[in-house]
Design goal:
Elements lengths: L10 H7 L9 E8 L5 E3 L7 E4 H6 L7 E5 L19 H12 L4 E6 L21 H17 L4 E4 L6 H11 L6 E2 L4 E2 L6 H7 L18 H13 L5 E4 L5 H9 L5 E5 L1 H12 L5 H15 L3 E4 L5 H6 L10
Parallel strand pairs: 1-3, 1-4, 1-11, 4-5, 5-6, 6-7, 8-9, 9-10, 10-11
Antiparallel strand pairs: 2-3
The structure holds ligand PBG and zinc ion.
The site of zinc ion has 5 residues, from loops.
């Protein structure tokens, strides 16, 4: 008789036939930066995540985190085009060399978008008809990416979902002589309800309308796959599917069509939902996080951008010990 239970009879046997534990090298931690000194502000919808000033982040940087994805914002003037995003004196541009000096081994990636810097919260400026102006956005995004690359970023990750943004940024990086910088495309990024906590953290919600005119539609998965294929053609070094957990099928589909790395962004809403469920007593926090991260890797993600990154030990090494306090 076929008895599959033989393959899982003891802990040792289960471990022997298990897939490898996802290595901490595969995790990228998204970090929210703010101006000023000594700041570490809790984000109410994301327990265990903070808005950091640069000095405080350097001082309390979590051991074992190998890579970060930096998000900036401004408390100063925002304008129609989001020009603050390309300011060489901006918080992201200043944080990069400080982090690299303090932690030479750390991989420092940056999010390249305009929504935290535009007065209206969209990922590009408006054209005369009131639409988001694709090509004007690409020009700005290229300037932002160059400013991050010049500051020493190991990689830039454009998230605006404008057509041609990868080609525009690749050309600008080459023209400006910063061609060593990785270009990580948020290639298949959906218009999702799962970005709410992030927009609270970043003050980047659109003041009017939504992002369905530029972010991919979850009702049109074929076009969503094409988004990644086009970004590969345009010169991306890595692709991405975002969000992760409701899009495991897309991670698998994109992976089967490319030899590029396929990152997955385990977004703010996914993190917040597990926290909320565990708080309500529906599941235990770290085991639930662990199960969800295995799902993302099993689907075919090669790296994961995740707010769980600083909690790697709690999740993967002491998975049974669920009552440890969050830092
Ligand atoms: C900016 C951006 C967003 C996220 C990453 N970059 C928000 C959005 O598109 O509205 C979401 C990340 C998260 O929810 O964790 N374009
Ligand atoms: Zn944006």
């Amino acid at each position: 008789m076929v008895r599959l239970r033989r393959l899982r009879r003891t802990e040792t046997i289960r471990n022997m036939f298990a897939m490898d534990v996802p290595s901490r090298d595969r995790f990228i931690w998204p970090v929210f930066l703010v101006e000023g000194k000594g700041r570490k502000e809790a984000i109410s919808s994301m327990p265990g995540q903070f808005r950091w000033s640069i000095d405080r982040l350097v001082k309390e940087f979590p051991a074992g985190v190998k890579a970060v994805l930096l998000f900036g914002q401004t408390e100063g003037e925002k304008d129609e085009v989001g020009s603050g995003a390309a300011d060489p004196g901006g918080v992201v541009q200043r944080a990069i060399p400080k982090l690299k000096r303090a932690f030479p081994e750390l991989a420092v990636f940056t999010d390249v978008c305009l929504c935290a810097y535009t007065s209206h919260g969209h990922c590009g400026p408006h054209d005369a008809d009131g639409d988001i102006d694709n090509d004007a956005a690409c020009e700005m995004l290229a300037r932002v990416a160059v400013s991050h690359a010049r500051a020493g970023a190991d990689g830039v990750a454009p998230s605006a979902m404008m057509d041609g943004q990868i080609a525009a940024i690749r050309a600008a990086l080459d023209d400006e002589g910063v061609s060593k910088t990785l270009l990580i495309a948020y290639s298949t990024k959906f218009a999702s309800t799962m970005y709410g906590p992030f927009r609270e953290a970043e003050n980047s919600a659109p003041s009017q309308g939504d992002r369905q005119g530029y972010q991919a539609s979850y009702r049109d998965p074929d076009t969503a796959v094409r988004e990644s294929l086009v970004d590969e053609e345009e010169g991306a070094d890595a692709l991405m599917v975002k969000p992760a957990l409701w899009y495991l099928d897309l991670i698998g589909r994109v992976r089967s069509r490319t030899l590029l790395p396929v990152m997955a962004y385990n977004v703010s809403g996914e993190y917040a939902m597990i926290h909320a469920a565990s708080k309500a007593g529906f599941c235990e926090l770290y085991p639930a996080a662990r199960e969800s991260l295995y799902a993302i890797f099993r689907a075919g993600a090669t790296q994961v951008i995740s707010y769980w990154a600083p909690y790697y030990d709690e999740i993967f090494q002491t998975a049974n010990q669920t009552n440890r306090r969050l830092r």
